[in-house]
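quick one if you have a minute, typing this from the bus. theres a chain ive been looking at and ive put its sequence and its fold in token form underneath. please have a look and point out which stretches look like helix strand or loop to you. anything you notice is useful, everything is just below.

***
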Amino acid sequence: MATQSDRVFFFGCVSCKKNKNIEEYAVYYCEKCQQCFCRQCCELHHDYLFSEHVKHDRLNMRNWPVSKELEAVILMCEIHTHKKLETICKDHSQLCCSKCVSLSHRKCKKVTLNSAKKQAPEVQELFEKLLINMRKLRKLQSCCESGIQDLKSSYQGQELMVHKMNDKIKSTMAKIVRRTLKKIPKVEQNKIHELMHSTLFHIENITLNEAKITLSSLEDSLKTGVETCIRHHHELKALHELLLYSSDNNNKKLCIIASRKCIDKIQQVVSYLDENSVKLECSVLQQTIQGTEQYIVRLSGLGRLKESMKAHTDIEQYLSKLSGLMRVVGPNYVFTVQGKSRHTVRIPSDSESCSITAICVLPDGQVLLADRNNKKVKLLNQQYHAVSHLDVRAKSQDICQITPSEVAVAVTYRNIHEVQFITVIQGQLTLGKMFQLQHGCTGIAHNHGDLYISSGTALYKFTLSGKQVCRLYKDTSADDTVDKCAVSPTGDRLYITSYRQNKLLTLARDGTLLATYTDPALDGPYGLHVTPAGQVLVCGWGSNTVLQVDSEGKSKLATLATQEDGVSYPWSVCYSSTTSSIIVGQWWGDNILVFRVE
């Protein structure tokens, strides 16, 4: 993916520019002609036409002409670009122009430019570090590019697998029909056939759409990695050129400033590589892709349907099961609770009673919990046993999935308001990037690269890099009017709970209010979740209830759990397609409730 724009030229080949109108990296300077040439043009110029001319390579840049552009780049202040760098603040290890000093460093004690020339070993060490990190960036870029191709192949393989599975189900279905519907009129048989085929077609389309959404999210992350690697490599290459020029021209001031710029940039790149190399490493990526493939099979319903057909030969049971699967992938299919269990999530390092404000289930069935009281994010396995945890700086309020192995956590308390990204790798939690907010963050949701963040009184849209796009909704009539938020799978509906006003609000993509739902059985609505099929689940904190609401946010479909079922001040809810269960987190206590549903 590297392009010509990835190359840096302070000295370009004159011949290539003049005759071919292209920029080519100059490696020689002809003293007689006073021009720079690339390797190919230099061979023609020096070896065949003007062999008596003296040429100087880049190891002898002291004989090259002074580049005013190059010198200006070295001396330019990155904060005040119209000013030249003149000093170094040793208190802050920062290069400064006169304006930097007057605005930010007047009270600093050590603001000077050391007149001592950089020693050759120090400069050489910087050269080596620049080259090492440039190679690492290229390796990571190549890994990301390879990963993007793997994702595309993965989707094509999944598409083929789904088609084959569907064909096998149709074949089995035809046998069942022939065996059990012999005495039913042909017209009725045709109706049943049409119902089955349309249902399977719908399930297949949903499956492939889920595959595309899941893999696209991961692909976006890899594309960002490629772009960041190219940008960092571009900047390192430019600094390599600056340092090479300044050190070879015996200019003490230029060399010191160029060296300082190199050190600062190298630190940035090392930090980026430390945070992202493991996450984007090819081997880890391959595991993620494989996990995604397994997830797609489970979500599709085709795998479960195939198994059920082995056990059920009665056509009525089969059709009932088939009809149920069709509804499962619809947003208004009503869950039926089949059983419940309770699981302890307290770990030895907890100092307070657990308060589970958010739950997120990963494609492989692992469960992430936000424990507000203990300022932790906990990882549970499929049996709901805690296997790992991470401490966060403030109280964790909400969690949303970004990729099959990465989540974003909304953290807020007093003056700390931030979004922390966490990666799950081989059963362990790893901190990733983070960005800060200028307002509280009580809820967070993700859809197709957009982050939706609620502040308590407003709903905002952000990019994954932390840039605010817009404010979608605001209600400052009281506190806690915009608490948790969720988004439909297609992104066309947004849902928010208003704890103070006892309301569930449904918004359009642009923030327009579409519906307001209130119910005596929904007192103090807080926890909120939308399943991959679009079903809406909401907790009543004061009423001790978990409800299912229709996708339009206008009416209740079912009361799934109440205080009689053990629900006490529910704060969070999430559906797991892996176990076909609804998980409920509570305000106080060390347990989560798991309701098995169909």
